[in-house]
Amino acid sequence: MAGRHTIILMQPSQNRGSRTFMDYNSVNHALDGICGLYERKIRDINPMVPNITYDITDLYNFIDGLADISALV
């Protein structure tokens, strides 16, 4: 889905003030952006680990743990 403008609407916690959006040029870039959010979270939790690794299940659990996430394509 290259070239499909995509907006991600996200609410990380139950707090309505945590609502945010991210704007991408394609669906692939949006998916990379979501992966990047998870990778930053891992780095924040484990700042001394030089190389992070994770399983797709870990990424799914991160997404499932968000209060809300939607994509407008």
Brief synopsis:
This protein is an alpha+beta fold and 73 residues long. 40% of the residues lie in helices and 22% in strands. It is built from two helices and three strands, in the order ββααβ.
Please tell me about this protein's structure.
This protein has helices spanning 27-45, 56-65; strands spanning 6-11, 20-24, 68-72. The protein is α+β, with helices and mostly antiparallel strands. A hairpin with an 8-residue loop joins strand 1 (6-11) and strand 2 (20-24).
Features:
73 residues; three-stranded antiparallel beta sheet; ERH-like fold; 40% helix; alpha+beta; 2 helices
* Intertermini distance: 9 Å
> Into which percentage range does the β-strand content fall?
15-25%
- Domain unit count: 1
The number of distinct β-strands equals: 3
Strand order of the largest sheet: 2-1-3
Describe the sheet with the most strands: 3 strands, antiparallel
- CATH topology description: ERH-like fold
- SSE order, one letter for each helix or strand: EEHHE
Unreliable segments (pLDDT under 50, ≥5 consecutive)? none
CATH class descriptor: Alpha Beta
Mean of pLDDT = 95
Which CATH architecture would you pick?
2-Layer Sandwich
- The geometry reads as globular
Radius of gyration: 13 Å
Going by CATH, the homologous superfamily would be Enhancer of rudimentary
Number of helices, counting only DSSP H or I runs of 4 residues or more? 2
InterPro entries: EHR_sf, ERH
Family: Belongs to the E(R) family.
Protein name: Enhancer of rudimentary homolog
Pfam families: ER (PF01133)
